[in-house]
Design brief:
158 residues; alpha+beta; Immunoglobulin-like; 11 strands; 49% strand; binds copper (II) ion
C-alpha cells in the first residue's frame, strides 16, 4: 500500500519536474544575456525553402555558441553559411556559430542564416513565425520573427 503511494508520488513528481523543465527551457528574449534583435523571415510558399535572419548580441563577458535552432514552420531547420567556389555561391550547414563576449553577430542574407527547409505552410508578408534558438550558455531562446521582404539593395534607394 505504502509502496503504491510512493510510486504514485514519484511519478507525479517526475511529471511535475519534467513539465517545469519544459517550461523553463524557453527563455524570453528580453530576460537573457543573449539578445536577439530584429528577427525576420523571407516570405515563402508552402514546401519551399527560406531563412530566418537576426542579430545576436552577447551582453555577457563570456563567449556563447548557437548550436541549433528549431521551428514548427518547416520540416528541417539548419544553421547555414555561404561560401564561394570560383564564381559560384553555395551554402552549407555549420555545426555552430560563436558569439564573442560583448559583441554582435549578424545572421543576414548572403551570409550566415537559419535555413528553414520545406516550409509547412505559406509564409506571407506581415505574418509572424516562431523559432527557438539554442545556445550553449544562454539556453533556448524563443523568437517571434516578422515575415517580410528582402531589404532593398543600398544602390537602389531613391
Ligand atoms: Cu541556407
Amino acid at each position: 500500500m505504502k509502496y503504491k503511494i510512493f510510486v504514485a508520488a514519484a511519478i507525479f513528481f517526475l511529471l511535475l519536474t519534467n513539465l517545469s523543465i519544459v517550461y523553463s527551457q524557453e527563455i524570453e528574449n528580453s530576460k537573457s544575456k543573449i539578445q536577439i534583435h530584429d528577427p525576420w523571415i523571407r516570405p515563402a510558399a508552402q514546401g519551399s525553402n527560406t531563412a530566418l535572419f537576426f542579430v545576436v548580441e552577447n551582453k555577457s563577458d563570456k563567449p556563447d555558441t548557437i548550436y541549433s535552432a528549431k521551428s514548427s514552420l518547416s520540416e528541417v531547420v539548419e544553421i547555414h553559411e555561404m561560401f564561394k567556389k570560383g564564381d559560384m555561391m553555395g551554402m552549407r550547414q555549420v555545426e555552430f556559430v560563436v558569439v564573442l563576449p560583448n559583441s554582435k553577430v549578424e545572421f543576414k542574407p548572403r551570409d550566415i542564416h537559419v535555413m528553414l527547409i520545406k516550409t509547412k505552410k505559406d509564409l506571407k508578408i506581415g505574418d509572424e513565425g516562431e523559432a527557438v534558438l539554442l545556445f550553449k550558455n544562454a539556453g533556448a531562446i524563443k523568437v517571434k520573427a516578422e515575415i517580410r521582404d528582402m531589404p532593398k539593395m543600398n544602390g537602389m534607394k531613391h
